[in-house]
Amino acid sequence: MVYISLNYYVFLVIALIAYYIFPLKLRWIVLLVSNAAFYGIFFRDGWWIFLATILFSYVMSRLTEKAEGMRKKIWLWTGIVGCAAPWLLLKNGDYIMSGLLGREPVNWIVPIGISFYTLQIIAYLTDVYRGKILTQRNLAKYALFISFFPQILQGPIPRYEQLGSQLTAGHKFDEDKFSKGFCLILWGFFLKLVIADKAAVVVGTVYNNYPAYTGLYILIATFLYSVQLYADFLSCTTLAQGVANLFGIEVMSNFERPYFAVSIKDFWRRWHISLSTWLRDYVYIPLGGNRKGKLRKHINLVLTFVVSGIWHGTGLRFVAWGLMHAFYQIAGDVTHGLRERVYESLGVASDSVWKRRIKQLGTFLLVSLSFVFFRADSLKIGVKMMLHMFTGFNPWILFGDKLFALGLGWKEMLVLVLAIVLLYWVGAMQEKGNAVSDRLMKFPLPIRWSVYILAILFIMVFGTYGYGFNAQDFIYGGF
Description:
The protein is an all-alpha fold.
């Protein structure tokens, strides 16, 4: 994957040197050229679709801003449909051709990051229509906002008011921000190589040969997939934040420790925040949100999560995943009072640690079960794996060496477990308002860089990479 490749960081060093050599007022041009070079060097296919979408959306935004009344709405929807159509066609073309029409799939050219920049553009057009922002009249600066290379592949999905002015302002070198960015990049590598790609070995062994496994094998692989997916996506967005910080630019955080959530609603406040807030602002609230009664609220939730499922991938399994989360939220809403009375009858205090832990564990279990459909190759296989998970009884695999036959030896499994414990500890510290990275930044420069060097050595020794191993692509790159 490009974000963890040597070539990417050679490219990044060149871009950084050029950025800080040029005068402040011209540094946005260096970023724009870097965006074009990034796409041209690493992803040469589909650039013309990306460029055409940028030009089209720029024109539509200007027409929307100038128009009034019904014409304003017509230009908005023309822009939204025109920008969404390539994404819907190219991302779903194979499924339509083979799955629905029974024909041979077509080798569609899909621009990298199309799922992310499409939502970014729709948000921009809608905010212009609502009068929330003014259009960027400079086409080059608008293109810079849409194509910012650290986050173009997998987000976060930025809003113009958050990122637009930062990209064009020009930033002086800031040693604190640069060190913070470097720290985030190291953390991203740790998440990817030491956690996500190690967990992927066990997950792949079970899910790619699911008929051979039942019971705890599938349950453990499913829990590990939840960890893999989180570490993988957090890695990518952390790398985006880190690289942006090197240029003095702040990119929004996309996660707030989602596995510490105490409900599915709370989970979606913490998971893929840029997408969940996009769905809230541009789907759920325009549908009516919770303003038109409980029944309408629940219908809006279902529709919003169906949109989320379609965005994540093609096929019924992603729709099923979305519907599961809609059901979770509706059930949680309907049964809230009953569950609170049960806790009260059992003598569990409303603010007790035990109650919070029970809620966190239950939420993690529900989320993990929904991810079965993310990882399974089809809805049918996902259903079969669910059945195999709950109909097989084999607790004895927890003893002996059965689990070490899933692709990781005991040493690698131990490293994975300890790395997950470290991830949990870092999250627990952040939940208490004590960010480890912020504490590290308070140490003198020699100590900080000593820690960085030790972290690099740790990742090099314990990371999953090298001869005989192909680093897993980032999972959300497929969405």
